[in-house]
């Protein structure tokens, strides 16, 4: 059994490991160490307890390793009061005076409307081409049998590859949206381990083992987004009450982005106008007449004409593939993820106000300032957000 200040790492392992800096082991027989809580530190290895910071000082996080990490939070309060004034001005302009809605209207008028008009014109042109093609098509299967057979086989291969790629994209979208649900509900489950098992099972069932190797980097990206949390280290504020105005500002910004995305009708454009354009173009680019047009529009000898035409067709297919990728529901998924980062409940979690730290409220000369800032911030939340949410 390991004495205090040491731990085994795994139960039943005879080797004892010394507790690292910023941590302690207070009892014998421990299998792990405990990081020093906020406002304490441990400057020696093998510590059996953490030392408290001098009165009126705090640490920015757990696991502090020296007394110098204990800082005086007075500057927190100065920043906090300034931020309260800035948040009030921003709330007045962007929430009460509906500047977010005005930005959304301008985006809808200057961007979405122009995109919709241009896309409708392209769709009409493709529809005219398709109708003319059907009217002028003469079916002569037996005249160019081998060439037609080659074209059919090629189109089948392209269709198979694109279908498989589309299925993987849909499964990937389901995985990402499941992560959003997991993050938004704060579910206490090992989500990423389950997600990796899910993709391994898909690769095994399809007998396509390279699939997991392809999606593994994407899984690391999903893990990053799943673990992403808003923090306020950029303002070096340690007191929760003093950081509440910055938290309110970030939440206000996220909700403003949501208002702009919804109010600009970009999602309506994608789901209605753009999808109709892609559907019409799909029937055109895969037609043999369209491919033959590319193969015969070049100049020079027969071989050069064929090669330049083939290159032209491949470029057109790459552009169309990128256009198909643009159908991915980026805006709605981004909106769902952004809303999972919103934490409005924190502004009423402590008896109707934002959370505060008793240690911050006992700083000499600044007694109760953390509560004052938290109360002002929650007051701004009640004034600006409640009427617009209810």
Total count of domains: 1
Determine Rg (CA atoms, Å): 31 Å
Terminal Cα span? 59 Å
What percent of residues adopt helix (DSSP H or I)?
55-70%
* Strand elements, count: 6
Task: Flag low-confidence runs.
Answer: none
- Dominant shape: flat
**Largest beta sheet: what is the strand line-up?**
1-2
Strand content: under 5%
- Summed up, the helix count is 12
Structural class comes to mainly alpha
The major beta sheet can be summarized as:
2 strands, antiparallel
Overall mean pLDDT stands at 78
Characteristics of this structure?
single chain; 390 residues; flat; two-stranded antiparallel sheet; 12 helices; mainly alpha
Produce the secondary structure layout.
Elements: E1 6-7, E2 17-18, E3 23-24, E4 34-35, E5 40-41, E6 51-52, H1 74-96, H2 99-136, H3 145-185, H4 191-206, H5 210-227, H6 240-263, H7 266-285, H8 288-295, H9 302-325, H10 330-340, H11 369-384, H12 386-389
Antiparallel strand pairs: 1-2, 3-4, 5-6
Question: Concise description?
Answer:
The protein has 390 residues and is mostly helical.
How does this model look, in words?
There is one protein chain. The chain is mainly α. It has one domain (about 80-390). Helix content is about 60%, strand content about 5%. It is built from twelve helices and six strands. The chain has helices at about 75-95, 100-135, 145-185, 190-205, 210-225, 240-265, 265-285, 290-295, 300-325, 330-340, 370-385, 385-390, and strands at about 5, 15-20, 25, 35, 40, 50. The strands form three sheets. The protein has a two-stranded antiparallel ribbon with strand order 1-2. α7 (about 265-285) runs antiparallel to α9 (about 300-325). The longest helix is centred in the middle third of the chain and has 41 residues, at about 145-185. It is flat and about 90 Å long.
């Amino acid at each position: 059994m390991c004495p205090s200040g040491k731990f085994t790492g795994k139960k039943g392992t005879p080797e004892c490991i010394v507790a690292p800096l910023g941590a302690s082991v207070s009892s014998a027989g421990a299998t792990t160490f405990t990081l020093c809580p906020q406002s304490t530190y441990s400057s020696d290895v093998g510590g059996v307890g953490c030392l408290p910071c001098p009165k009126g000082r705090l640490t920015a996080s757990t696991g502090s390793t020296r007394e110098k990490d204990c800082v005086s939070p007075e500057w927190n309060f100065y920043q906090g009061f300034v931020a309260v004034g800035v948040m009030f001005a921003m709330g007045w302009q962007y929430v009460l005076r509906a500047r977010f809605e005005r930005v959304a209207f301008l985006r809808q008028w200057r961007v979405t409307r122009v995109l919709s008009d241009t896309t409708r014109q392209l769709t009409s042109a493709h529809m005219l081409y398709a109708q003319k093609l059907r009217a002028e098509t003469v079916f002569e299967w037996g005249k160019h049998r081998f060439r037609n057979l080659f074209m059919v086989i090629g189109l089948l291969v392209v269709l198979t590859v694109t279908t498989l790629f589309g299925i993987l994209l849909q499964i990937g979208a389901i995985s990402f949206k499941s992560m959003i649900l997991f993050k938004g509900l704060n579910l206490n489950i090992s989500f990423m381990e389950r997600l990796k098992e899910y993709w391994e099972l898909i690769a095994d069932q399809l007998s396509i083992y390279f699939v997991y190797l392809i999606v593994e980097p994407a899984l690391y990206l999903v893990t990053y987004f799943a673990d992403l949390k808003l923090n306020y280290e950029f303002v070096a504020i340690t007191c929760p009450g003093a950081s509440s105005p910055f938290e309110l500002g970030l939440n206000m910004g996220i909700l403003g982005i949501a208002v702009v995305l919804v109010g600009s009708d970009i999602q309506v454009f994608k789901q209605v106008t753009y999808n109709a354009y892609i559907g019409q173009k799909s029937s055109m680019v895969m037609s043999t007449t369209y491919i033959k047009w590319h193969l015969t529009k070049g100049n020079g000898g027969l071989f050069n004409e064929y090669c330049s035409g083939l290159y032209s067709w491949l470029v057109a297919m790459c552009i169309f593939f990128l256009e198909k990728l643009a159908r991915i529901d980026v805006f709605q998924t981004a909106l769902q993820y952004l809303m999972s980062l919103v934490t409005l409940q924190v502004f009423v979690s402590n008896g109707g106000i934002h959370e505060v730290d008793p240690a911050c409220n006992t700083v000499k000369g600044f007694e109760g300032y953390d509560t004052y800032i938290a109360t002002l911030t929650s007051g701004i939340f009640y004034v600006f957000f409640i009427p617009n949410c209810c």
